[in-house]
Amino acid sequence: MLEIKNLHVAVGGKEILKGLTLAISAGEVHAIMGPNGSGKSTLSYVLAGREGYEITGGAITYRGENLAELSPEKRSAKGIFLAMQYPVEIPGVTTLTFLKTALNAQRRARNEPELDALAVLKLVRSKAASLNVPEEMLKRALNFGFSGGEKKKLEILQMALFEPALAILDETDSGLDIDALKLVADGVNRLRSPERAMLVITHYQRLLNFIVPDRVHVMAGGRIVAKGGKELALELEAKGYGHWTKDAA
Amino acid sequence: MNAIVLPNRRIEDWKYSDLRNAVDESAVAAAPTAAWTMASVEGAADIADLPAIMPRGEHGAMAELAIAAAKAGPYVRVAKGERAAVHLHLVEGGHGRALIVVEDGASLVLRETVRAADFANIAVEIVIGKGARLDHVRHAPQHDTVQLADYAVQVADGGQYCAQLMNFGSKLARTELHVVLEGEHAEAVIGGAAVLSGTRHSDVTIHVDHAVGNSKSRQSFRYVAGGHSRAIYQGKVTVRQRADGSDSMQTAKGILLGERAEIDLKPELEILADDVKCAHGAAVGDLDADSLFYLRSRGVPESEARSLLIRAFLEDAVTGIEDEKIRSEIWSAVEAALPAAMEPAP
Questions:
Q1: Which chain A residues are within 8 Å of B302, Cβ to Cβ?
Q2: Angle at B100 between CA B322 and CA B69, to 5 degrees
Q3: What number of C-beta contacts closer than 8 Å exist between A and B?
Q4: 8 Å CB contact of B293 and A50
Q5: Is A161 within 8 Å of A128 (Cβ atoms)?
Q6: What is the pLDDT of residues B149-203, one digit of tens each?
Q7: Which residue in A87, A150, B114, B183 is deepest, having the highest Cβ count within 10 Å?
Q8: How far apart are CA B244 and CA B237, in angstroms?
Q9: CB of B319 within 8 Å of any CB in chain A?
Q10: Residues 272 through 311 of chain B touching chain A, CB cutoff 8 Å
Q11: Are the beta carbons of A92 and B304 separated by less than 8 Å?
């Protein structure tokens, strides 16, 4: 589904990704682990199409298409979803209005009929209930004044609602207590399916106790420096990143 | 009329609104008396002609000219304890005068609209009695003329003046408010927005004077400027000596949509008392890049995301309008003005 080949990315003229190669097939959950500054978030932003992240070499192919040519909104309509580490607070736009706008924009782009307000409400309510998201949250301004846990829950709610083909979770575990973490992991696990690929980016192994990956990649210095099965995460936990980052430097 | 000297950019207060460049002195001198109509009157409002003896508040330079030149004007009075809603429409430009009196314990919703097709220079006296309340919504439509309006507002003990100034810009448009909080617990809540496109201009200049203590003022403005337009906010708050316990806050924010647009925000404080609570803030910028990316990454196309963020920004400015019907009319005007303001410059 996603194939990243020898990817080089610069931000503000500084090279952050330095020849990253990675392939994910439908039905798989991959984890990327790495220390701070290894380029994890840069990878997530470049996959979502954020401006200012310049691809200086290599290629990203998503379902046979060159991803670099697509705007963020086109990528979204084609099934790419990035759950952000720091969801943005937008006062003045209520959460429900935003969900309806986003959902219908994606449907419009795919030439699917738009859903009316009632249909959206029903859909959102059913997804929210399964994630323990209180309805009151949907009436508040988007992420505005939300706690860290609430923001992450809303990201997962959006993932459940948009049903992406490729979901990227950027440090979704950061700032969560164990209960919130379980709830978020539950939401993610429920979305595992043979048609869907997931890329879980994390600093800590903890999240991977709850979202068990098929493959684990270790990232350091803008490259994948090691890969393996789920046991690699445990090895990392035991040995620390130093073991791998030495090679990268 | 004697020779007129028009305010120009060399006068600090008119720095951003060079009137001499916008209109001929002879045209100002020759302007007739402005004409108003009462588009609607509900409740217990008395409508009459201006009385021989008028209250006089502090005004700006051009208002003095209007006062000298205007030969007649409307007088709206709401007697003690009564309630009313009046829609005042300036149907023909020129020099105009008006008097609004809301007596003790009375309340008035004053909606003011302007045809704006020709030069207008109006001076309005507003007197708000003890415990009285005036809700003043001024809607200045988009035009290409010179529009000057100047209000002197006196607020007695426990009186409330709530103003909402909605500007869509003209060749040169300036609204001045001179509010004096004369009694304890008097309050002024002033807000508004400007949505500008093309080469339009809108200047809101406000002076709130906390003449006595335990009075409160709030100012909040939101500007969106596209094309080559220019939006100005000059807000000064004075807290007089011994006006302890005064509480004032000013915020003004602007979003520049046009590369050649300009927004000037100038909040100012003059505090002569010791025990006061005053704050001000102003910020001009582009749309927030993080917000824009967040929305786009969820499938919202860029133009729709921009418009969603601008609407959210402006909506804050109209929530202060209590009358639902007026609020929805104003919002429709905002919606109508936005596409032109968001248009990329040619």
A1: 71, 73
A2: 130
A3: 75
A4: yes
A5: no
A6: 999 999 999 999 999 999 999 999 999 999 999 999 999 999 999 999 999 999 9
A7: B114
A8: 14
A9: no
A10: 288-291, 293-302, 304-305, 308-309, 311
A11: no
A203-207, B143-147, B237-241, B268-272: the lowest-pLDDT one: A203-207
Q: In this structure, what token pair is assigned to residue B215? A: 């009075």
Does the distance separating the beta carbons of B293 and A158 come in below 8 Å? no
Asked whether residue B3 is domain-assigned, the answer is: no
Residue of B nearest to A91 (CA): B312
Return the DSSP state at B71. Answer: -
CA separation for the pair B156, B211 (Å, rounded): 11
CB within 8 Å: A105 and B309: no
The residues with which B113 forms a beta bridge, in sequence order, are B89, B139
Tokens for B36, please give them: 């108003």
Closest C-alpha among A25, A28, A15 to residue A192: A28
What is the 3-state composition of chain B as percent helix, strand, coil, each rounded to the nearest 5? Answer: 20, 45, 35
Residue to test with chain A: of B224, B253, B286, B298, most A Cβ within 10 A: B298
A87 and B304 within 8 Å at the Cβ level: the answer is no
In this structure, what are the phi and psi dihedrals at residue B341, rounded to the nearest 5 degrees?
A: -65, -30
Looking at residue B3, its pLDDT comes to: 67
The 10s digit of each residue's pLDDT in A131-188 is: 888 989 999 999 999 988 899 999 999 999 999 999 999 998 887 888 888 888 988 8
Residue B173 is assigned to a structural domain of this protein: yes
Task: Give the nearest partner residue to B297 out of A76, A90, A91, using CB atoms.
Answer: A76
Which of B291, B304, B316 has its CB closest to that of A90?
A: B291
Distance from CA of A72 to the nearest CA of B (A): 5
Check whether A249 has a pLDDT greater than 50. no
Chain segment B15-74, per-residue pLDDT in tens: 999 999 999 999 999 999 999 999 999 999 999 999 999 998 999 999 999 999 998 999
Residue B75 lies in a domain: yes
Per-residue model confidence (pLDDT) at position B270: 95
CB atoms A91 and B293 under 8 Å: no
- Across the interface, whether the CB atoms of B291 and A82 are under 8 A apart is answered no
Structure confidence by residue, pLDDT tens digits, A38-90: 999 999 999 999 999 999 999 999 999 999 999 999 999 999 999 999 999 99
Within a domain: B1:
no
Q: Which domain holds residue B212?
A: 29-342
What CATH fold (topology level) applies to the domain A2-248?
Answer: Rossmann fold (3.40.50)
The CB-side HSE value for A194 (13 A sphere, CA atoms) comes to: 0
ipTM: 0.95
Q: Count of CB atoms within 10 A of residue B244's CB?
A: 15
Interchain pair B293, A162: CB under 8 A: no
Number of domains in chain B: 1
